[in-house]
Amino acid sequence: xxxxSLLADGFAVALNPFxxxxxxxxxxxxxxxxxxxxxxxxNGVAILIPLAFSFGLDATEALILMTSVYYGAMYGGRIxxxxxxxxxxxxxxMTTLDGYPMAKAGRASDALVxxxxxxxxxxxxxxxxxxxxxxxxxxxxxxxxxxxxxxLYLLAFSTLGGIASNNQRKAALAAxxxxxxxxxxxxxxxxxxxxxxxxxxxxxxxxxxxxxVGLFAVSEVFIFIESHGKSSAIGVKLDKITIPVKDIxxxxxxxxxxxxxxxxxxxxxxxxxxLGSFLAYMxxxxxxxxxxxxxxxxxxxxxxxxxxxxxAAGGALVPMLTLGVPGSGTTAVLLALLMTLNITPGxxxxxxxxxxxxxxxxxxxxxxxxxxxxxxxxxxIFVKVLSVPPSVLLPGVCMVSFVGIYSLSGSYFDLLLMxxxxxxxxxxxxxxxxxxxxxxxxxLGNHMEDSLRRAMVLSGGEWQYLFSSTIxxxxxxxxxxxxxxxxxxxxxxxxxxxxxxxxxDTASADSKxxx
Amino acid sequence: xxxxxxxxxxxVAGLAYAFASTKIPTSFLADPLGxxxxxxxxxxxxxxxxxxIALKPDRPGPQWPAPITWFALxxxxxxxxxxxxxxxxxxxxxxxxxxxxxxxxxxRPKIIASLATGVGLSLxxxxxxxxxxGLSLAAVPRGWIA
Lengths: 515, 146
What we know:
The complex is a heterodimer of chains A (515) and B (146).
Chain A: H1 2-14, H2 17-35, H3 41-54, H4 59-84, H5 93-141, H6 146-162, H7 168-183, E1 185-186, E2 193-194, H8 208-227, H9 245-250, H10 252-267, H11 272-287, H12 299-315, H13 317-323, H14 329-340, H15 347-352, H16 354-375, H17 379-385, H18 390-409, H19 412-430, H20 436-459, H21 470-488, H22 490-493
Helix pairs in contact in A: 1-16, 2-4, 2-16, 3-4, 3-8, 3-14, 3-18, 4-5, 4-12, 4-14, 4-16, 5-10, 5-12, 5-13, 5-16, 6-7, 6-20, 6-21, 7-20, 8-18, 8-19, 10-11, 10-12, 11-12, 14-20
Chain B: H1 2-22, H2 37-55, H3 67-86, H4 93-107, H5 111-132
Helix pairs in contact in B: 1-2, 3-4, 4-5
């Protein structure tokens, strides 16, 4: 009952005309961001944060706008997956497997509508899950001391490096790079400068927005210059939008199962939406009796990853809000937003700022209906967005990033640092080193060190204290297992190869059978 | 090969970082761990990851661009640096139009289209920043408006 009254208060915040307008605007921007290849959700949200500040939004409003963008991007990612065979963002990768073959078979509109509905089911149920689970987890989070937090941060890095990456060594290296960058600047406890090399600009440390925009947006420009925007494939034409009622009913079970899988995957700190859509697809493929059509345009293969990725997007907000540990790259960016707004996520957020939490949840419930309308009857408008050529889009994104970062600090140094991060991001992406752990490291580095140091203060330097509670031990075990287990399960976690237009059309996508 | 270089660079950088961490000044407000320990652990872990990557590189390695593309990327980086340095003294419009035109040309080498993109982005974004978001951006060099 208490939940309902809190939710009613939340709706009072969310139904304020200005907030409502922000949610709708966020949904539209988000769907565009998601649909455009080369502009992923973390990217889009990161670029928009400085602009949201200059707009003078307060905490609740900024958070509602950005989370609507985040949800919208998760919906929009499928559009180019289905029509162009290029994932609009990383989690939409799995949607290309069956979405594009379905579109090639002349069922583009069916695939778009079905995936739109699947997105809605996933996101809506996940938001309700968030509403029910987050307050409970916030209660548990009160039991967390520094030792538990340290183990939790470790868990976030190890799941990110273990399950969600192809090469553990490189993911661990990326996490170390991020954490090492976070150490630069004044030390929180002693007030002494660390590793600044005497540079005054580095005293305040490296701003994570500078790093995020550099690593994601600026490096994307370099990637496109290298490829001359060749990746913009011809794609498939879209005809009249009809509702494939039969497919929707036939895949309703798929949607529900995938929502559960995606939500759980999203809650795992560090795992995120890509893992959610991957597990949902693989789970559904091994669950259904006749999976011979998977990878060749099975409607269930479209519904499963979309429900999974949107549910994971909602799930990832749970650890972000209750523990301050993001579940994915984009929630890491949202966490950066909260920290910049001086809001500390964690159990206290639920007791001290219920307006923020419940306003956000109510806004997300509303946003889902807005997104359903935008993504099913009005999807044609967003399909038009895909015809923006990369030669206009990428310079535009780049200029917006520059102005955004410039408006934040007004310093040349940050702009040059951002370019430096862009070059670094390009090289690392070529070398197949994931960039999300770097972001997470920069974001969480100081918190991680603080919790370790506080734990040592509490125990007087006894390191056994780190393993002194059941929760801490459980988290350590989960961290170790999460990092090591994928090494032995490599076969199961091998990613299916998307349909390649250059080879025979019948190229099967199920390269590796699920063991 | 690329991974071996990456690994060795990480190994050296990690050791250098750990070494630099030993030079961090400590203050009298000491906690049991102090400001040095965590960075030193990080440096050591980075070095270890580098070693493992160098010993067991991914195959096949990455596809590096041709020399001409490296040249194009170097131009792009210099354009961005130039943009960063001129944004304030020259105002928003001119540097943005120039930088956006060059980047656009680098992605799709069509001169007229690139120029149109540059000018269009410059004017369009200025309108959005100035009138929708209310940012105080100087449009042109300071001396141009009396």
